[in-house]
């Protein structure tokens, strides 16, 4: 059985501002959501409703060994510029005449359609000009499989507030 997990990683202005692939996976689609550039610090995250939905962001979606995987690079005040290494021509933080909240995201399916772009664990995926936020959403094993009684469960190896370094495991699953 698989569950859906998420991890929100806040990058302070003095932190490393690049995103690396957490696993080997196949990126199938990129969505760019224009939006606001509210701050993303802890206070803003507590007080601004739907902060990560309101702010400009680039979302990569695809598949890894355990199922669904998505990485969202969320812009913030003074940091709307998100550089995507697998699509260098993508431009974020473009001036707009008027913010239309219901505007659909700009979407790009990676060619050939449905095949995607393979990323290896540790590959550089994206970068910010300063600090911001990265949101990971992924499927992973949750418990024993009723069919063959295989025990396999994902567990985060980090806790809220931990400082994370490049290459450090966010979690493990016990087979």
Automatic annotation (TrEMBL):
Stored Pfam families: PS_Dcarbxylase
Enzymatic class: lyase
UniProt EC number: 4.1.1.65
GO cellular component assignments: mitochondrion
Annotated InterPro entries: PS_Dcarbxylase, PSD-B
Pathway info: Phospholipid metabolism; phosphatidylethanolamine biosynthesis; Lipid metabolism
Protein's recorded name: phosphatidylserine decarboxylase
Organism listed in the record: Gossypium lobatum
């Amino acid at each position: 059985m698989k569950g859906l997990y998420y991890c929100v990683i806040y990058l302070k202005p003095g932190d490393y501002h690049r995103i690396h692939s957490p696993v080997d996976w196949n990126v199938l689609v990129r969505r760019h959501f224009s939006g606001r550039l509210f701050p993303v610090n802890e206070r803003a995250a507590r007080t601004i409703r739907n902060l990560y939905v309101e702010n400009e962001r680039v979302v990569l979606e695809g598949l890894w060994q355990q199922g669904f995987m998505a990485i969202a690079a969320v812009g913030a005040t003074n940091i709307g510029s998100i550089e995507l290494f697998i699509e260098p021509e993508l431009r974020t933080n473009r001036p707009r005449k008027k913010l239309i909240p219901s505007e659909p995201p700009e979407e790009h399916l990676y060619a050939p359609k449905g095949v995607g772009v393979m990323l290896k664990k540790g590959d550089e995926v994206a970068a910010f000009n300063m600090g911001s936020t990265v949101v990971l959403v992924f499927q992973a094993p949750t418990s024993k499989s009723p069919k063959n009684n295989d025990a396999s469960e994902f567990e985060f190896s980090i806790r809220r507030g931990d400082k994370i370094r490049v290459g450090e495991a966010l979690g493990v699953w016990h087979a």
